[in-house]
Structure formats: C-alpha cells, structure tokens
Amino acid sequence: MTIKIQSASEASGRQAADGGVRLTPATYVDLRYGMFIHYGLYSLLGRGEWVLNRERIALGEYQKLADKFTAAKFDPAAICHLAVRAGMRYLVFTTMHHDGFRLYQTELSDFNSVRAAARRDLTGEIVAAARQRGLRIGLYHSLNNWMDQPDAAAALEDASAYRIFIQRTHERLAELVRRYQPIDVLWYDGWWPFNADQWQAQAMNRGMAAIAPGILFNGRNGLPGDFATPEGHLGAPHPWRPWEACITLNNSWGFHQGDHDWKTPGQVVDMLATVAAGGGNLLLNVGPRGDGSIPQPTVDVLEAVGQWLGRCGECIFNTDRFTYGLRQRGDHRGDWCHHGPMTARGHTLYALLRRWPGRELVLAGWQCQVQGARLLGVKGEGGLQLVQTGERVTIRGLPEHSPDPVCTVLALECDRPPVMYLGGGMRVPKVDHPPYDPCPSDLAHG
User: Fold this and answer.
1) Distance (Å, whole) CA 34 – CA 24
2) Cα–Cα distance between 255 and 438 in angstroms, integer?
3) Are strands 33-37 and 90-96 parallel, antiparallel or unpaired?
4) pTM of the entire structure?
5) 116 CB neighbour count, 10 Å cutoff
6) Which terminus of the chain, N or C, has less C-beta within 10 A?
7) What is the set of domains in the chain, with CATH numbers?
8) Beta bridge partners of 44
9) Are 361 and 394 within 8 A, CB to CB?
10) Rounded Cα gap, residues 1 and 132, in angstroms
C-alpha cells in the first residue's frame, strides 16, 4: 500500500500574499520533522556552542577566530538535500548564537561571516537552498549577545546602557527579517536576564510582523509565542497548544569533538512517534564541524530514518493526537506500551513495534472494534490473523523476527477513531477513578 506523504507546502494550508502557502501555528506542527543547525565560530574550537562563556575566553581572542573561519566545506545545497533525504520538511538555522557572530551580511557589525575569512553570507545561502528544495525556513537568533558592548550585564546595571542594548537588539532583528523575508519562523533564544516587558517583546513581535506579515514566533522572548519549544525532552504542553521539541542528535548543539553518543535511528523513530501522538514537531539538531562539514554518523542516522519514513511515514505524518493507557486522563505521563509507541490517524492505530514480540502480539485495553491488521512497507505481509475478545486483541502470523531493520509498524484498522485505556489494576473500575496515582507522584515529569 502506497501512502502519499504531503510536502511541506501541501501540508500548510493557507495562501500567502507572495504566492506561497503561509503557515499557521496549527499547520506548522503538521510539518512534524525539521533540522536544527548550530554552526558558528564555536564550531572551530569543537567544544560546544557555549565555549566562550564556559571557558571565559577573552573577547579579543575569540574574535580572532573569524580569521580562521573559512566555512570551506559548508555546503547549503548538500545540507538541504540531506534534510530532504531524511524526510524533514523544514530547517531552523542559527543566524547568530549568544557569541554575537553573525552568519549573514549585516551593516550593524563587522563581526560576521562576510567580513570573516569565509567571505560568505551563509544565512542567505541556506535560505536559498532550502527554498529551492521546498523546505520551510526558520531563522534562529539570540537576543542575548556576549560580544557587543554594552552587553546584557551592563544593561542590568545602567539605564542608559539598557536603552542602547534593547534598541540594538530590535534593530538587529529587523535587519535580519527584512533581509531574508519571506521566512516562516523567527526562532528567538537567549532571553535571559530579562522578562517580556524588559525585552519589550510585544513591540518586538509587532515590528517583525510589520516587516514580514504572517511570520510565526516561538516563545523565547518572554511571551508564549505561537508554539512552545521544550528543549532536550519530549512532552506535549498541558493544556495542549502547538509545540516543537528541539533535541540534539548526540548530546551537544554545537560541534563537540569528544561527543560520540549518537542516537540510533530507532531512538529517532521513538521521538518522532512521541511528537506524532502528541501533535507536535521534532526539531532535530546537527552540528557541523568547524569547516562546515557534517559528521558522517549524523548523515548515516538521518539517511536511515529517511529510508524508514519512506516505508512507514504514514504513522508519523498527518496523524491525530492520541493518548494511551495511563496518560488518558489528566496530565499524568507515566504511561507505556511494552512493545513500543503508538500513533493514530483517522480510524487507524499504528503500533510501532520497537521490541519485537515474535509470531504473536497481544494488545489490551481496546474500547473499539479492530477490523483488520497490516504491516507497513513489508512485502508479502499477508496472512495475519486477528482475534478480538472484549478489550483484548491477538494478532497471529507475524514473522519470527522483525522484518524492518529500524522499526516494524503494525497498522490496525478500527470501526471508529481508536481508543485504548488501561489503568494500574487488572480491570477498569466502573466509577470515576484516578488513572494511576491517587496522590501526587514523585515520578519525573519532562
């Protein structure tokens, strides 16, 4: 069975004045999967993007790195092609991190990639390459800036320094948005040490929207923004609103030469299933080396996931929010399925069998009728037998071993949108009850 996965533009839904399709917060999280790119001077040192702060490097010494920043192997076309092969629908690019080095042409500072050894507008190049390949574009930009003076510390201490600092921040953002519009998202970061009022965040968003009508904002200038951005963990907000989890492919945002803890394709699939069930996006980070090249383990993982999405993408894209078991009520998150995560679309439930059960699978807690079963992307997958007895469904005739090298997906067709519920006991009480804990839990919440 072949399922057409919509492109980013097809999934978005609303025509913009410039002829493109404008995103809304709801259609943004329908994109589901994007690439975060952390690249800058810090990549040359290979100790992460906070190295200037963590090691208290003298600003003058750090500035000298610009003379070595050639970006010789930074290839926007190749990066965007990798994102497409990975099944991603959008990019978020770090135009300036907290160190203040701009990866774009700017009239407001000499500390930028055009004045550096690279002599290149890297932001302009990545935006153009993404547009050519139908990828949506988000521009990351730090509000904080350790390099320019006065900095945020001076702004805290002196009213005149504060006025200069805030004015320059707003001017810098306006120049960026004006230069590269139309873009889809302005992705703020580095909001400390100020709140929304101190950042003058309402005026900030109004000013950017006046330049680029329809642009979306994340929530890191002190305002809620158009979507939430949990960092380093997964979990839909309660109550739900559009959200995007940003996660590193290893344990570092910027390139770290000693970090080899790469997530496996299966772990990325687990994350994709979590955001699909929770109605959110996964923004997965890659950190190019100092020369701009992408580490080979990054390429290998992303390509493997992309190939899996080609086989099984219908369980990730265009899905409905779905909760199972102990997460069914309230905001308790201590639920699980012992074979792997689940997603849903319409009347279909998808069981992502990360822990293969063998020839027989039993799933309980059904509050609907299951009418059929099929394996996604598996040739000659016929011969499955389905038996439902009350809330218990048994699938027989599965292969002895998982036929998919990353994750086999079982699609279960139901008589209505799938509903499953299991409590902490052996039966569900017929009266109102807590799903699991009758008192506050000490389980960690993401």
Assistant:
1) 16
2) 45
3) parallel
4) 0.93
5) 23
6) N
7) 8-315 (3.20.20.80), 325-414 (2.60.40)
8) none
9) yes
10) 30
Which H or E run contains 285? strand 281-286
Beta bridge partners of 217: 186
145 pLDDT above the threshold of 90? yes
Residue 243, strand partner residues: 228
Nearest-angstrom CA–CA distance, 237 and 281: 12
CA distance 103 to 389: 61
- Tokens for 153? 């510390």
Phi, psi of 102 (to 5 degrees): -90, 135
Using 50, 70 and 90 to split pLDDT, how confident is the model at 15?
very low
Q: How many residues are recorded in the chain? A: 446
SS3 (DSSP) at 283: strand
SS3 state at 177: helix
DSSP-derived letter for residue 148 is: S
DSSP class of residue 409?
E
State in Å, rounded, how far the first CA of the chain is from the last one.
Answer: 37
DSSP-based three-state secondary structure for 157: helix
Spatial CA neighbour of 175 closest among 189, 186, 159: 186
Residue type, 418: P
Q: How far apart are CA 190 and CA 165, in angstroms?
A: 14
Query: Measured between alpha carbons, how far is 248 from 82 in angstroms, rounded to an integer?
Result: 16
Where does residue 273 rank: exposed (0-12), middle (13-18), buried (19+ CB within 10 A)? buried
CA distance 376 to 386: 16
Instruction: Check if the beta carbon of residue 437 is closer than 8 Å to that of residue 371.
Output: no
In the block, tokens 């992307």 appear at 377
Digit-coded pLDDT (tens) for 157-175:
999 999 999 999 999 999 9
